[in-house]
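Assemble and predict.
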Amino acid sequence: MTPDLEVERLKIRFIAAYERLQQRGLITEEEFEAIIDLLDRLDEVDEAELKATLGRFQALKKQLGKDETT
Amino acid sequence: MSTEVVPVGEAWPPQRGRLSDPEAERRVLGILIQYPELIDSVIDRLRPHHFQDRTTRKVFDAILSLYTSHGRISYSRVYDQLRKERAFPDIERVLLELTESFTSPGELEPSTELLMAAYARRRLWEAAQAIQQMVLEETETSVAEYQARAQEIIFEASQEATGLEDEVKDLVDILGRCYVRLTERREGKQSYGLLVRFPAIDYLTTGFKPKDLIILAARPSMGKTALALNFAVNVAKRKIPVLIFSLEMDDEQIGDRIVLSELFRLQQTDTPVSSMEYATRMDDAKFAATQSIFNELYHLPIMVVDRRGLTTAEIRAKARKVKAQYPDLGLIIIDYLQLIRPPRESSTKNWALVVGDMVREIRDLAGELDLPIILLSQLNRGVEARENKRPVMSDLRDSGNIEEFADVVMFLYRDDYYYPERAKQEGTEGEVEVIIAKQRKGPTGSAKLRFIREFTRFIELAPEEAAR
């Protein structure tokens, strides 16, 4: 598998994870769409923008991970 | 992996792998999403229904939606599209599998071919099921109708499965074929169209072209059938098969007419045979002369279907069958339009529309079989009410869109039919005007022939008569 496809697989997993957050009401539809848009344009965005956008949701994601294990 | 197969009927055969190719379907999608620049190479022939698997079909739908809305195509966008459409659960798993479905974009073309071939097989299988069901349910009234409908079903299935790949043709290819035909004509190997060996008509038409619908229309007794049969014999004498649908006369009447028109050739010999003699008794010498005409005609590749009340579907089915048997079939004659039975479902439709549909179907048949079809037609009585009784295009208007669908419209007009005294005085008895009122690929105009009524035979006029 090419590195490009590996990245695409990673994006799919990311989107699926954020979709679960959205389904639980932890992020809004607009926020979810912003994430999809960001991941889709990953080549064009710089690291700072990436951290700023995704960083806001990392805590939620970690929290969700804990919930799922307990 | 979600490879839910949509069952077609309950008796989906166990070897369904031959009727669908889930791997090829996934490969195509995986490549299209990863290499969206390749979509243009398949978008004109690939349709959602080509995908047997319901899930892959939904993914292709999503790709199409993005493509038609000029949206970016990527795994992220396809995910988003599928999510919004609530296409199916577990989008993540399906898309991850698509990323693993192919190894190189070079697999797109062969995989597309594979999935379309599976679709073609599926359509044929469904057609076979439909035919089986039709026969068991007795939906048609006669065996001929079953055969016609069965051919129709198979034809529709194979037409649809063939796809649209040949619709866009390169000018270089087109001109190449034109050039080959040009050189063949120049070398005398081939005429532009099918010559009917009446120089005055051939000069105007340069021969009837393949795929053309030629309407030969006239009021009764003008000689429509006779001229069409003369065309048929002249064409068949060059070993080009001709198929005649005679919805009025039976096969023996057709045979007698063909013999009679050839007996005319004996008029200048020591043993002329009159039509009366042919219909009654004749001496040995005349019988021998007539036998020689029979011997010449036996070899002509003319086929006759003389069943009354044929529908266009039945005509199409029989014509296809003959074309399959005689691939060089060169001409079809249908005598005549007003005797073709309209389909049952048309009883509530406007008559002109029904006739228009039938004419269009016959034109399509000419295109499909790649040969000219001469469709004889009656004209309405409006002609009789006019002072100048030469038919004009508007005389066809009550009969649907004939003029619109026809490539050539020919009318027959005999002055001596309406004004016998005048014709006698002017010496124009037996003269027939063949009026080319419409010709898509050539000029309009008229040619004159002589109609020898006794022998139902048309001949060329002498030059001084033609110049009158």
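The interface with chain B takes residues 1, 4-5, 8-9, 11-13, 15-16, 19, 33, 36, 39-40 of chain A (CB under 8 Å).
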